[in-house]
Write a structure and sequence with these properties.
There is one protein chain. The protein is elongated, with a radius of gyration of 24 Å. The protein has nine helices and eleven strands. The chain has a six-stranded antiparallel sheet. Helix 6 packs across helix 7 and helix 8 packs antiparallel against helix 9. It is an alpha+beta fold and about 300 residues long. It folds into two domains: about 210 residues, 2-Layer Sandwich (Alpha-Beta Plaits); about 70 residues, no CATH class. The chain binds flavin-adenine dinucleotide. Flavin-adenine dinucleotide binds next to helix 8.
Protein backbone atom coordinates (compact mmCIF):
# COMPACT_ATOMS: atom_id res chain seq x y z
CA UNK A 1 0.00 0.00 0.00
CA UNK A 2 1.29 3.51 -0.75
CA UNK A 3 1.68 5.78 2.28
CA UNK A 4 -1.75 7.27 2.93
CA UNK A 5 -3.40 9.74 5.25
CA UNK A 6 -6.17 8.06 7.24
CA UNK A 7 -7.97 8.85 10.48
CA UNK A 8 -5.28 6.96 12.39
CA UNK A 9 -2.47 9.10 10.93
CA UNK A 10 -3.08 11.91 13.44
CA UNK A 11 -0.81 12.14 16.49
CA UNK A 12 -1.05 14.72 19.22
CA UNK A 13 1.52 16.55 21.27
CA UNK A 14 0.24 18.55 24.27
CA UNK A 15 -3.19 18.43 22.65
CA UNK A 16 -1.97 19.78 19.30
CA UNK A 17 -2.57 17.46 16.33
CA UNK A 18 0.04 16.62 13.72
CA UNK A 19 0.69 14.02 11.03
CA UNK A 20 4.34 12.99 10.86
CA UNK A 21 6.19 12.23 7.64
CA UNK A 22 9.64 10.70 7.97
CA UNK A 23 12.21 11.12 5.19
CA UNK A 24 13.72 8.05 3.51
CA UNK A 25 16.92 7.84 1.45
CA UNK A 26 17.82 6.24 -1.85
CA UNK A 27 20.81 3.87 -1.92
CA UNK A 28 22.94 6.86 -2.94
CA UNK A 29 21.63 8.97 -0.06
CA UNK A 30 19.15 11.26 -1.83
CA UNK A 31 16.36 12.09 0.67
CA UNK A 32 12.70 11.67 -0.27
CA UNK A 33 9.29 11.51 1.43
CA UNK A 34 6.22 9.49 0.59
CA UNK A 35 3.34 11.39 2.26
CA UNK A 36 2.51 14.88 3.50
CA UNK A 37 3.69 15.97 6.93
CA UNK A 38 1.12 18.25 8.56
CA UNK A 39 1.40 20.20 11.80
CA UNK A 40 -0.74 22.97 13.23
CA UNK A 41 1.75 25.54 14.51
CA UNK A 42 -0.65 28.28 15.61
CA UNK A 43 -4.31 28.62 16.59
CA UNK A 44 -6.42 31.33 18.29
CA UNK A 45 -5.71 32.27 21.88
CA UNK A 46 -9.09 33.81 22.73
CA UNK A 47 -9.36 35.95 25.88
CA UNK A 48 -12.99 37.01 26.12
CA UNK A 49 -12.36 38.33 29.64
CA UNK A 50 -10.76 41.26 27.81
CA UNK A 51 -14.31 42.19 26.70
CA UNK A 52 -15.49 42.49 30.30
CA UNK A 53 -15.35 46.26 30.56
CA UNK A 54 -17.24 46.59 27.27
CA UNK A 55 -19.96 44.18 28.42
CA UNK A 56 -20.19 45.71 31.90
CA UNK A 57 -20.70 49.17 30.37
CA UNK A 58 -24.32 48.35 29.51
CA UNK A 59 -25.23 47.82 33.19
CA UNK A 60 -27.67 45.08 32.27
CA UNK A 61 -25.80 41.91 33.19
CA UNK A 62 -24.13 41.34 29.80
CA UNK A 63 -20.94 40.33 31.63
CA UNK A 64 -22.76 37.13 32.69
CA UNK A 65 -21.87 36.04 29.14
CA UNK A 66 -18.33 35.43 30.41
CA UNK A 67 -19.54 32.98 33.07
CA UNK A 68 -20.93 30.37 30.67
CA UNK A 69 -20.13 27.07 32.43
CA UNK A 70 -19.46 25.22 29.16
CA UNK A 71 -16.06 26.10 27.76
CA UNK A 72 -15.67 26.11 23.98
CA UNK A 73 -12.44 25.55 22.02
CA UNK A 74 -10.77 28.90 21.34
CA UNK A 75 -11.73 29.10 17.64
CA UNK A 76 -15.40 28.49 18.36
CA UNK A 77 -15.28 30.88 21.35
CA UNK A 78 -13.96 33.68 19.18
CA UNK A 79 -16.30 33.11 16.22
CA UNK A 80 -19.38 32.79 18.45
CA UNK A 81 -18.53 35.97 20.37
CA UNK A 82 -17.95 37.86 17.09
CA UNK A 83 -21.23 36.56 15.68
CA UNK A 84 -23.17 37.41 18.83
CA UNK A 85 -21.71 40.91 18.90
CA UNK A 86 -23.54 41.59 15.63
CA UNK A 87 -26.91 41.47 17.44
CA UNK A 88 -25.58 42.28 20.92
CA UNK A 89 -26.80 38.80 21.88
CA UNK A 90 -25.16 38.83 25.30
CA UNK A 91 -28.29 38.80 27.46
CA UNK A 92 -30.15 35.97 29.16
CA UNK A 93 -31.88 34.91 25.91
CA UNK A 94 -28.60 34.39 24.09
CA UNK A 95 -27.57 31.01 22.69
CA UNK A 96 -25.32 29.54 25.34
CA UNK A 97 -22.24 27.45 24.71
CA UNK A 98 -24.25 24.29 25.36
CA UNK A 99 -26.05 25.08 22.10
CA UNK A 100 -22.94 26.07 20.16
CA UNK A 101 -23.43 23.31 17.60
CA UNK A 102 -26.92 24.60 16.77
CA UNK A 103 -25.55 28.15 16.60
CA UNK A 104 -22.84 27.19 14.09
CA UNK A 105 -25.17 24.95 12.06
CA UNK A 106 -27.37 27.98 11.64
CA UNK A 107 -24.38 30.10 10.54
CA UNK A 108 -23.34 27.44 8.06
CA UNK A 109 -26.84 26.86 6.73
CA UNK A 110 -27.60 30.54 6.27
CA UNK A 111 -24.21 31.16 4.63
CA UNK A 112 -23.23 33.90 7.10
CA UNK A 113 -19.69 32.59 6.99
CA UNK A 114 -17.93 35.88 7.70
CA UNK A 115 -17.88 35.13 11.45
CA UNK A 116 -15.77 32.07 10.59
CA UNK A 117 -13.10 34.44 9.26
CA UNK A 118 -11.98 35.37 12.81
CA UNK A 119 -10.27 32.15 13.93
CA UNK A 120 -7.10 31.49 11.95
CA UNK A 121 -5.00 28.34 11.97
CA UNK A 122 -1.40 28.14 10.75
CA UNK A 123 0.03 24.92 9.37
CA UNK A 124 3.46 23.69 8.46
CA UNK A 125 3.22 21.34 5.48
CA UNK A 126 6.18 19.27 4.34
CA UNK A 127 6.58 16.09 2.29
CA UNK A 128 4.56 17.77 -0.47
CA UNK A 129 5.78 18.42 -3.97
CA UNK A 130 6.17 21.65 -5.85
CA UNK A 131 3.20 20.62 -8.01
CA UNK A 132 0.99 20.45 -4.89
CA UNK A 133 2.09 23.85 -3.62
CA UNK A 134 1.48 25.28 -7.09
CA UNK A 135 -2.16 24.16 -6.66
CA UNK A 136 -2.31 25.20 -3.01
CA UNK A 137 -1.24 28.80 -3.62
CA UNK A 138 -4.11 29.26 -6.08
CA UNK A 139 -6.33 29.64 -2.99
CA UNK A 140 -6.40 33.38 -2.49
CA UNK A 141 -9.19 34.51 -0.18
CA UNK A 142 -8.12 34.45 3.47
CA UNK A 143 -4.77 32.69 2.91
CA UNK A 144 -1.14 33.61 3.65
CA UNK A 145 1.83 31.57 2.39
CA UNK A 146 5.57 31.38 3.09
CA UNK A 147 7.26 28.78 0.92
CA UNK A 148 10.86 27.58 0.84
CA UNK A 149 12.96 29.67 -1.52
CA UNK A 150 14.80 27.66 -4.13
CA UNK A 151 16.95 30.79 -4.69
CA UNK A 152 18.29 31.01 -1.12
CA UNK A 153 18.28 27.43 0.09
CA UNK A 154 21.24 25.31 -0.92
CA UNK A 155 20.84 22.18 -3.05
CA UNK A 156 22.15 20.18 -0.08
CA UNK A 157 18.73 20.65 1.58
CA UNK A 158 16.71 19.60 -1.45
CA UNK A 159 14.44 16.57 -0.93
CA UNK A 160 11.96 14.88 -3.22
CA UNK A 161 8.44 13.45 -2.94
CA UNK A 162 7.48 10.06 -4.31
CA UNK A 163 3.97 9.91 -5.76
CA UNK A 164 1.66 7.18 -4.41
CA UNK A 165 1.44 5.57 -7.86
CA UNK A 166 5.17 4.73 -7.76
CA UNK A 167 5.40 3.44 -4.21
CA UNK A 168 4.03 -0.07 -4.78
CA UNK A 169 5.39 -0.59 -8.26
CA UNK A 170 8.99 -1.83 -8.05
CA UNK A 171 9.84 -0.63 -11.56
CA UNK A 172 8.36 2.87 -11.12
CA UNK A 173 9.88 3.13 -7.65
CA UNK A 174 13.30 2.12 -8.95
CA UNK A 175 13.00 4.62 -11.79
CA UNK A 176 11.98 7.32 -9.27
CA UNK A 177 15.00 6.73 -7.05
CA UNK A 178 17.34 6.70 -10.06
CA UNK A 179 15.74 9.90 -11.37
CA UNK A 180 16.07 11.82 -8.11
CA UNK A 181 19.67 10.63 -7.67
CA UNK A 182 20.37 12.00 -11.14
CA UNK A 183 18.47 15.21 -10.39
CA UNK A 184 20.38 15.84 -7.18
CA UNK A 185 23.68 15.15 -8.95
CA UNK A 186 22.73 17.32 -11.94
CA UNK A 187 21.77 20.20 -9.66
CA UNK A 188 25.12 19.97 -7.88
CA UNK A 189 26.95 19.73 -11.18
CA UNK A 190 25.19 22.76 -12.67
CA UNK A 191 25.84 24.75 -9.47
CA UNK A 192 29.53 23.71 -9.48
CA UNK A 193 29.93 24.72 -13.14
CA UNK A 194 28.24 28.09 -12.56
CA UNK A 195 30.55 28.80 -9.61
CA UNK A 196 33.61 27.78 -11.54
CA UNK A 197 32.65 29.91 -14.59
CA UNK A 198 32.08 32.89 -12.32
CA UNK A 199 35.35 32.40 -10.48
CA UNK A 200 37.11 32.06 -13.84
CA UNK A 201 36.06 35.65 -14.54
CA UNK A 202 33.19 34.92 -16.94
CA UNK A 203 30.82 37.20 -14.95
CA UNK A 204 27.85 35.21 -16.18
CA UNK A 205 26.04 35.63 -12.86
CA UNK A 206 27.05 39.22 -12.05
CA UNK A 207 27.03 38.39 -8.32
CA UNK A 208 29.26 40.43 -6.04
CA UNK A 209 28.41 39.52 -2.45
CA UNK A 210 28.90 35.91 -1.35
CA UNK A 211 25.20 35.36 -0.55
CA UNK A 212 24.24 37.17 -3.73
CA UNK A 213 26.47 34.83 -5.73
CA UNK A 214 25.00 31.77 -3.98
CA UNK A 215 21.50 33.08 -4.73
CA UNK A 216 22.34 33.62 -8.38
CA UNK A 217 23.83 30.14 -8.64
CA UNK A 218 20.78 28.56 -6.98
CA UNK A 219 18.27 30.50 -9.05
CA UNK A 220 19.95 29.29 -12.24
CA UNK A 221 20.57 25.71 -11.06
CA UNK A 222 16.98 25.25 -9.81
CA UNK A 223 15.78 25.14 -13.41
CA UNK A 224 16.73 21.44 -13.44
CA UNK A 225 14.58 20.60 -10.41
CA UNK A 226 11.39 18.66 -11.22
CA UNK A 227 7.81 19.08 -9.96
CA UNK A 228 8.49 16.21 -7.54
CA UNK A 229 10.89 18.39 -5.54
CA UNK A 230 9.66 18.86 -1.96
CA UNK A 231 8.33 22.37 -1.25
CA UNK A 232 7.80 22.96 2.49
CA UNK A 233 5.37 25.77 3.21
CA UNK A 234 3.73 27.57 6.13
CA UNK A 235 0.09 28.36 5.41
CA UNK A 236 -2.19 30.52 7.53
CA UNK A 237 -5.89 30.75 6.75
CA UNK A 238 -9.10 31.52 8.55
CA UNK A 239 -11.68 28.81 9.22
CA UNK A 240 -13.91 29.91 6.34
CA UNK A 241 -11.01 29.75 3.89
CA UNK A 242 -9.86 26.35 5.22
CA UNK A 243 -13.40 25.05 4.75
CA UNK A 244 -13.39 26.11 1.09
CA UNK A 245 -9.95 24.55 0.56
CA UNK A 246 -11.11 21.25 2.13
CA UNK A 247 -14.28 21.17 0.03
CA UNK A 248 -12.35 21.81 -3.20
CA UNK A 249 -9.44 19.52 -2.48
CA UNK A 250 -10.58 16.67 -0.17
CA UNK A 251 -12.72 15.75 -3.10
CA UNK A 252 -12.63 12.88 -5.63
CA UNK A 253 -12.04 15.37 -8.49
CA UNK A 254 -8.90 16.76 -6.85
CA UNK A 255 -5.45 15.41 -7.62
CA UNK A 256 -4.51 12.56 -5.27
CA UNK A 257 -1.51 14.24 -3.58
CA UNK A 258 -3.35 17.46 -2.70
CA UNK A 259 -6.37 15.36 -1.69
CA UNK A 260 -4.25 13.59 0.92
CA UNK A 261 -2.98 16.97 2.13
CA UNK A 262 -6.52 18.40 2.34
CA UNK A 263 -7.87 15.34 4.15
CA UNK A 264 -5.02 15.45 6.69
CA UNK A 265 -5.57 19.20 7.15
CA UNK A 266 -9.25 18.52 7.78
CA UNK A 267 -8.41 15.84 10.39
CA UNK A 268 -6.12 18.25 12.25
CA UNK A 269 -8.70 21.06 12.10
CA UNK A 270 -11.47 18.76 13.29
CA UNK A 271 -9.29 17.81 16.27
CA UNK A 272 -8.64 21.50 17.02
CA UNK A 273 -11.97 23.21 16.28
CA UNK A 274 -14.48 20.34 16.23
CA UNK A 275 -17.69 22.37 15.94
CA UNK A 276 -16.42 24.52 13.06
CA UNK A 277 -15.74 21.38 11.02
CA UNK A 278 -18.25 18.85 12.40
CA UNK A 279 -20.57 18.93 9.38
CA UNK A 280 -18.02 17.14 7.21
CA UNK A 281 -18.57 13.46 6.57
CA UNK A 282 -15.53 11.36 5.80
CA UNK A 283 -15.94 9.37 2.60
CA UNK A 284 -13.79 6.40 1.59
CA UNK A 285 -13.01 6.58 -2.13
CA UNK A 286 -12.60 3.64 -4.52
CA UNK A 287 -8.82 4.15 -4.78
CA UNK A 288 -8.43 3.70 -1.00
CA UNK A 289 -7.97 7.44 -0.31
CA UNK A 290 -10.33 9.64 1.70
CA UNK A 291 -12.38 12.73 1.00
CA UNK A 292 -15.16 14.66 2.72
CA UNK A 293 -18.66 15.89 1.90
CA UNK A 294 -20.90 18.41 3.60
CA UNK A 295 -24.41 19.73 3.16
CA UNK A 296 -23.08 23.23 4.01
CA UNK A 297 -20.82 24.00 1.07
CA UNK A 298 -19.01 27.32 0.72
CA UNK A 299 -20.43 29.11 3.76
C1 LIG B 1 -10.39 19.59 -9.33
C2 LIG B 1 -9.76 20.90 -9.68
C3 LIG B 1 -9.25 21.12 -10.95
C4 LIG B 1 -8.66 22.33 -11.27
N1 LIG B 1 -8.14 22.53 -12.52
C5 LIG B 1 -7.60 23.71 -12.86
C6 LIG B 1 -7.06 23.95 -14.16
O1 LIG B 1 -7.10 23.08 -15.03
N2 LIG B 1 -6.49 25.13 -14.44
C7 LIG B 1 -6.44 26.14 -13.50
O2 LIG B 1 -5.94 27.22 -13.79
N3 LIG B 1 -6.91 25.95 -12.25
C8 LIG B 1 -7.49 24.78 -11.92
N4 LIG B 1 -7.97 24.59 -10.64
C9 LIG B 1 -7.83 25.65 -9.66
C10 LIG B 1 -9.16 26.44 -9.49
O3 LIG B 1 -9.56 27.04 -10.71
C11 LIG B 1 -8.99 27.52 -8.42
O4 LIG B 1 -7.99 28.44 -8.82
C12 LIG B 1 -8.62 26.98 -7.07
O5 LIG B 1 -9.36 25.82 -6.77
C13 LIG B 1 -8.93 28.02 -6.00
O6 LIG B 1 -10.34 28.12 -5.89
P1 LIG B 1 -11.06 29.49 -5.59
O7 LIG B 1 -10.72 30.52 -6.61
O8 LIG B 1 -12.53 29.17 -5.41
O9 LIG B 1 -10.44 29.80 -4.15
P2 LIG B 1 -9.99 31.19 -3.52
O10 LIG B 1 -8.99 31.87 -4.39
O11 LIG B 1 -9.54 30.90 -2.14
O12 LIG B 1 -11.29 32.03 -3.48
C14 LIG B 1 -12.38 31.65 -2.63
C15 LIG B 1 -13.65 32.27 -3.19
O13 LIG B 1 -13.55 33.69 -3.09
C16 LIG B 1 -14.16 34.27 -4.23
N5 LIG B 1 -13.12 35.01 -4.99
C17 LIG B 1 -11.78 34.91 -4.82
N6 LIG B 1 -11.14 35.73 -5.65
C18 LIG B 1 -12.10 36.35 -6.38
C19 LIG B 1 -12.06 37.30 -7.42
N7 LIG B 1 -10.92 37.79 -7.90
N8 LIG B 1 -13.23 37.71 -7.94
C20 LIG B 1 -14.41 37.25 -7.48
N9 LIG B 1 -14.52 36.32 -6.49
C21 LIG B 1 -13.38 35.89 -5.95
C22 LIG B 1 -14.76 33.14 -5.06
O14 LIG B 1 -16.10 32.93 -4.63
C23 LIG B 1 -13.89 31.98 -4.66
O15 LIG B 1 -14.50 30.69 -4.84
C24 LIG B 1 -8.57 23.37 -10.30
C25 LIG B 1 -9.08 23.14 -9.01
C26 LIG B 1 -9.67 21.93 -8.70
C27 LIG B 1 -10.20 21.72 -7.29
Amino acid sequence: MPAQITQSSVWTQHGWPFIPSIPLKTGSGTPFLTAPGIAIVAKPDTRLEMAKSYLAGFNNGFEEYLKDPNALPSGERLAKFAGQLCYQSFGSKRTTNADAKRYFDNIKESGHGSVLEHPTFSFLFWGISRSVTHELVRHRAGFGFSQVSQRYVSGKLVRFVERPEYQDDPELHEQFTRRIDTMAATYEEVARMLFSRQRGGAEILSGEEKTDLRKRVNQAARSVLPNETEAPIVVTANARAWRHFIEMRANPHAEVEIRALAFGTFLCLKATAPILFDDYEEVGLPDGTWGVTTKFRKV
